[in-house]
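Quick check before the chapter quiz. The format below is the same one you will see on the exam, so make sure you can read both the input and the output lines.
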Amino acid sequence: MEHQDWQQVVLRRPGAQTQKRVSPNLPPWERDVHEDGPDALITSALKNALIQARGARKRRDVFLEAQQRGCRVPEKVMEQAEAGKCTLKEGKQVALAYQKVLGVKIL
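Here is the expected output.
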């Protein structure tokens, strides 16, 4: 049996690309996603703009004012936006809430 080749052979079509599957159970900041897809992460410019807009005010104060004015953005999402761990859509929602509460143009 020395005349047989026992090495593993993988057959692929020429030019075929493999696709990575994204697990839906992973949080968005741990997924391997593109920058312009539906799960795109918040940009650093938007993150810095949110932090600068909040300024010296405490996070809790901004959250309470947002709740009183009818913004329905959870406090956890606001914290994730400032940490850069939320999606771009959630980041824009937080920016709109900050604009409403603080009266500063972010977007």
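If your answer matched, good. The radius of gyration is 22 Å.
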